[in-house]
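Input:
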Amino acid sequence: MALAPERPRIYEGSRIPSPIPSVLELSNALRSSQDVLTVNFGPNHPSTHGVLRLVVDLHGEEVVGLAAVVGYLHTGFEKNMEQKSWWKAITYAPRIDYVSFQNNELVFVLAVEKLLQIDVPPRATWMRMLLAELNRIHSHLVWLGTAALELGAISMFWYCFRERDRILDLFELVAGFRMHTRYFQVGGLAEDIPPGFFDECAKFVELMPHAIDDYESLVDRNQIWLERTQGIGLLSRADAIALGQSGPVLRGSGVDWDLRRAQPYLAYDQVDFRVPVYQEGDVYARYRVRMEEMRESVRIVDQALRRLPGGAWIADDRKVVLPPREELHTSMESLIHHFKIVTEGFSVPEGEVYVTVESPRGELGCYVVSDGGPRPWRVKFRAPSFVALEATATCMRQALVADLIAIVGSLDTVMGEVDR
Amino acid sequence: MPGLVEVLEAHGETTLVVDTPRLLEAAGHLRDELGFDFLSDIAATDYLGWDSKDVSGYIGTPAGRDLNKPSTQGHQRLPRPKARRFSLSYHLLGMREGAPRVRLQAWVDDGEPVQSLVSVWPTADWHEREAWDLMGIRFDGHPNHRRILMDDDWEGHPLRKDYPIGGEPVRFSGEE
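Output:
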């Protein structure tokens, strides 16, 4: 897709610190000063969305040096996935980013399917898209609630979590779990969609735009909110691309780029949606992008609900997909296939693939290597949160302590995904 | 393209294998001449034990399984051997119509350094630190060559295939 035409720059040149792009170093004048105070912000601080530690140098109220320290939530997901059979490894993917679980699950399943060259029935494809968009709304709601809370808008949290709970109810209705649903199976879905889901989801589609109106009426004309977000945490389009930013952070910096449109996966080329882009590159622009994305996601969910095709919900490939439960009592072959897949798993042909999707946080990638056996040889996630944190130092030029909270919040990082 | 060794096409993805000492040159060419301005990810892979049946520990008998026995759901043939132990895959994206992607790949042995690409794509900073931390691949010219996810004094590189799973001693801070 074409990039938006170049607008007046929000700052001249580049603000990426040198030589280390992710560390804001003290200037020589301040290094000898007695007035610089070094503070550990985190790892346990309510506004770090997990356990992020920022080593901040303060000169009065101003942030003059910054380095992010990550790794507190490192649990070795990628190493663990190498030890599990392919279909057990799916369970790990949603836990990496525990706020946009379905997108993580999706990207891993898509990668395995690409290696297997298996065709997914359209009903499963559309349902995956529907759930991925509900999950995007869910993720943005968690972001909005917590980011607003950090800036003092406490009531926002309750409103956002009210709607978030309705989305979790929908997930529970479909998959039996509220989070980490593990509903996407290699080849399709784990179960057919329960009939009650459509009515409940339609009610949600009806309600959600009004809820977004409510959120906007709470903060959009709120003087405190505007002063704390506008012109704060600037990131130019060139710097955003150089730092590998993606998703709302990139679109808030004036780059018209969305993988759902640029390289359509699932059925995104068959639905109508807009990609919101803002030029300002500040915290407010990122907030606006997310608000409008929620509205667009509601539209996609609505279209998916109306157009969801019938038919099979999982591919009919007995070497990969579990046979229907009822066949196990009558068919010897089905029983053998079931036993084989459950005990040792299916094998995936040798090869390496890199699959990307647009998660709520941006470009989520999954690199998978198979040696032809029943377990992944290597799984590597490109975590958009990990990359977003690299931009903290660039955004933090000329920021005050209070802005630091707003800026870190606006990057929307989930530490589970950063540390994996 | 400078240093190009091999072009592989598989699963609709293009892999450009380059001569490791000329990686920096090739990266600059890809960014400036071919317009791959966005570095999406750096993925390091350890291929230790790739084409033997023991290391990856297949489910089945402790001795592994007969790899060449057909219709066993396990290995039906040995994977193609790899020239060196580690691969580094740089996943690049061109932000333009069609969203072209390419995988820039370099192969290294244990202890062999690779040129840092921070000067080409600043986002490589943390990705390279992660590759060092978890796989133990050294990057020449990286401005902040430190561990990122594990502690600074951690021993070993956990995502290597010869790193033990579980059973590490629990460390207490009062213990010396």
